[in-house]
Amino acid sequence: MNKKLLTATGYFYLMSYALVVTTIGPCNKPISDTFGINERAMGLLISAHYAGFIITTIYAGYLVEKIGLKPVMVGSIFLLGITLIGFGMSWSAPVLFIMMFFTGVGGGAVESAINALISSVHSETRVYSLNMLHMFFGVGAFIWPVIAGSILKNGTSWQTLYIIIGIFSLFMGLVMFIQKFPEVTFGEKVSFRDTLSMMRIPSVVVIGGVVALYVGGEIGINAWIVRYFDREVLNGVPFSHTLKFGVGAHVLAFTLTSGIFQSLYWFTMTVGRFFVTFTAKSVPDYLLLRVLTLGSAICAIATFIVRDAVSASIFLGLTGFFFSGIFATAIATGGNRFPDKLGQISGIIICFSGIGNVVLNAAIGEVAQRAGNIRAGMLFASAILVGMTICAFAVKKQPKVSGAS
To answer: Residue-wise pLDDT tens for the chain (405 aa)?
Structure first.
């Protein structure tokens, strides 16, 4: 096994997986317009993805322990690619929802496997390495919304975007397939009942609560921020600015759209991950988690209270910055407390993220629909981060005996 090459491949794949997660931002309104669905239905569409996500995060950790990382990783990447293509080719709203569900099935297994892989390969620097992994995700996440927004502005359909991302995912599946993964070492027999039992351990529930509420807020903001700025902050006049570059006798034009706000969100999150990656080497995981959750909750609420674009952008950027290390630190915190069950704990914590996304994204759409404005949905997304912070403060210092709850 080439540890450096496998790590680099894993980092690059999660960077490309960011395209899957962020494309819903600039495509939110185009998808809604194509099928004539309202805010409530869009919230449910996002929830459909994470319903599939939950199923495989429960089973993925179990499968990683049973058959190894490689079969789970490669199989899930191929499934994700096929269903992304199917999503882009959907001819009706029911088919759209079905395809979205199965992109979640593939995505859930991908996230469980990639986090377990990095945790396993870098067991001595787990917090650092997982934050580095998610820093790469952030790079893809902040670059893509600007590019996707420009592509859509220039006439490419949202369907084409999803098909292209699906084809690229299939390519990455082949790249992963030719890599040599760590050998599977079967220690104590793992049963699905053991996985369910772990989900009832208090420390797992608390860490899971942090992740569930965090991702509900993070993905909710990610999915709606472009439409929020267009409708609520810019008063229905979408942002558009064309940049022109002279290259010899040719002039290249690139149009910036409101996707730039989504990119700002992920850019500051990526910058934050850079700092958190190195801070994590000297700050205990539970203290780091408390600082990040408290800061993000305060800034998110401020983002959707202020009315002008400049102030909203500043607080949005700060929200992304504090969001930066929450997910990876939570995964690492679980891994540090259950080092002998990395596949299971990674799958369980990510499963909590799926639960949060299913319930809270549907709720965000429902609140926006009932209130008649997206601001109300975003304030709801921000308010749930207070609960996340409470859960983070309930996470205790790592016990001296590994595996204790």
So the answer is: 667 777 887 888 888 888 888 888 888 888 988 998 888 888 899 889 888 887 776 676 667 777 777 888 888 899 999 999 999 999 999 999 999 999 988 887 887 778 777 777 776 666 677 777 877 887 888 888 888 888 888 888 999 999 999 998 899 888 888 887 766 454 445 566 766 777 778 888 899 899 999 999 998 998 889 889 988 888 767 666 666 666 555 656 666 777 888 889 989 988 887 888 778 778 888 889 999 999 999 999 999 999 888 999 999 999 999 998 898 788 888 877 777 776 677 767 877 877 888 888 889 989 998 988 889 999 999 999 999 999 999 988 766 544 443
> How far, in Å, are 213, 320, 392 from residue 293 at the CA level?
10, 11, 7
Helix-strand-coil split of the chain, %, nearest 5: 80, 5, 15
The C-alpha R_g of the chain, in whole angstroms, comes to 20
The strand pairing partners of 254, in sequence order, are 243
DSSP characters over 302-349: HHHH--SHHHHHHHHHHHHHHHTTHHHHHHHHHHHH-GGGHHHHHHHH
Q: Which of 155, 144, 166, 164 is nearest to 222 (CA)?
A: 144
Task: Quickly tell me which residue has 């099935």 as its tokens.
Answer: 105
Q: What secondary structure does DSSP assign to 119-140, as a single string? A: HHHTGGGHHHHHHHHHHHHHHH
Domains observed in the chain: 3-180+191-394 (1.20.1250.20)
**Residues paired with residue 256 on neighbouring β-strands, in sequence order:** 241
Half-sphere exposure of 31 (CA within 13 A, CB side): 29
- Looking at this protein, which amino acid is placed at residue 232? E
